[in-house]
Amino acid sequence: MDDDTYEAIQGQVRPDRSLFQASEEERNAKLKELNQKAQDILDEVLDPTQLKRLKGLYVQRSGLRAVTNELIAQEIGLSEEGRKKVAESLQAAAQEAFGKMREMFQNRGEGGFDREAMEKAREEMQAALDKAIKEHLTSDQLAKLEALKGPKFEFPEPQFGRGGPGAGGRPGG
Questions:
Q1: Taking the CA of residue 122 as centre, how many other CA atoms within 13 Å lie in the half-sphere pointing to its CB?
Q2: Residue 6: CB partners within 8 Å, gap ≥ 6?
Q3: Which has more confidence, 159 or 13?
């Protein structure tokens, strides 16, 4: 994809600032509209094999949280009601996990930052989130999700700085 095409796509799907000031209902409607625009663009520029691979990469990167995506949910046979239940369980589990993380930060004392403890807490948080999702999925849906991943891809470590998160530029520079 050339830079002009990339910028044109970004202009079509980039939310404006009013999105952050909208009510939750308005924000959800706008995000759904933007997601549909993005999907329409992907359907136009990717062939079915590429689109399937993109979904697989998304599942690999997102893990079980991928089921909150409408397209992934459809692929595995998860209903809208099921997605809502997953989202509610995720929100509750995340609030609890973030509360524990916040407590760790506040109670770290003079010893400073304990990287191992934080990593362990992050792993526990991820396990709690995964458990909250699995409670709403059948074994068939889990198998379909696993199959959707396709061949394993080794994602590069995130790079911060030029072109990275917060730089406002295109990923990778």
A1: 7
A2: 170
A3: 159
Rounded CA-CA distance 170/1 in Å is 12
Q: Residue 86 has which token pair?
A: 């997953």
Decide if pLDDT at 67 tops 50.
yes
Name the one residue in this structure whose structure tokens are 């909150």: 68
Name the more confident of 159 and 140.
Answer: 140
H-type alpha helices, 24-155: 24-45, 48-62, 70-76, 80-106, 115-134, 139-148
| The token pair that represents 104 in the structure block | 């760790």
What integer best gives the mean pLDDT of the chain?
82
Alpha-carbon torsion (29, 32, 38, 44), positive or negative: negative
Residue type, 106: Q
pLDDT reading at 35 higher than 70: yes
Q: Are 89 and 132 in contact (CB under 8 A)?
A: yes
The token pair at 52 is 């399937």
- Note the pLDDT tens digit of each residue in 81-106: 999 999 899 888 888 877 877 777 77
3-state SS assignment for residue 25: helix
Distance (Å, whole) CA 119 – CA 125: 10
Is 76 in contact with 83 (CB distance < 8 Å)? no
